[in-house]
Prior knowledge:
The chain is α+β, with helices and mostly antiparallel strands. Helices cover about 30% and strands about 40% of the residues. A 7-stranded mixed sheet has the order 1-2-3-4-5-9-6, sandwiched between helices. Strands 7-8 form a two-stranded antiparallel sheet.
Amino acid sequence: xxxxxxxxxDKTNFMELLLLADEDIKMIEKYLYRGDLFALYDDGLKxxxxxTQESNDSCxxxxxxxxxxxxxxxxxxxxxxxxxxxxRGRYATMSVGTGDVPWILRFYQKNGFRIxxxxxxxxxxxYDHPMYEDGVQLVDMVYLSKSx
Length: 148
């Protein structure tokens, strides 16, 4: 297994995978080029994530995606462990925003994040079409944070 930080000129090569976690290419482009993109390989690409600086002491996980065929194999958790180590000492906290979906919230909580707050109507206000996960329409953004 190898995790690599991807340079700016190569970031668009990962759009297909990034779109699994955020289906609006315009939203991805808002954070992709101001953030760090990491890719996890294990006999081929399995997972990616994007992290942005939000203040002098905090960063945000903007996107993390694993090809669906590889869900449940620990790739997302291994990628998170790597970025926690990578950013420890640079930032005090990392946050992540996601939809109110039980399995996704469990994933983040299993990896040390705790729910901090909600942004009401984020998905309905910021996307040009209804967003669904597991058959449920996403409305509020749930924010979680983790001390690094």
